[in-house]
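explain this:
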Amino acid sequence: MSQRINIKKLAPAGYAAVVGLENYLTTTRLSPLHHELVRIRASQINGCTYCIDKHTQDAIAQGASIRQLFALTNWGETDFFTEEEQAILAVTEEVTLIPQGLSDETYARAARVFDEEYLAQLIMAVIVINAWNRIGVSTHMKPALH
């Protein structure tokens, strides 16, 4: 598979709008590590290798352990993640898998751990990485070998 069109070049206003959402996230209370966990888990679900590669490296820089990253696809079966991280990962999965939607149970679990503002910012983070994943997957973006 070769890379297809360059969305940034061919639809610069649309691309800039997604960058604007990404920039908004830097102004929120969402912790950098939480944000990276959202990005990686959604990217795993969506099959965006480019984003998995990028955000795994970023998560390590934010303090994620290698064990956490290796177990991320099966996070619910480990003790590697805090209660907050488990709530984040559950919300990420359910918002990403939109036909199922965010269940009342998962929403309540997250609402016990986070205030409404943080929860709103978390949902926005999931929405933004899903937009990036769709750009990456549909244009066949690939990570560069170093």
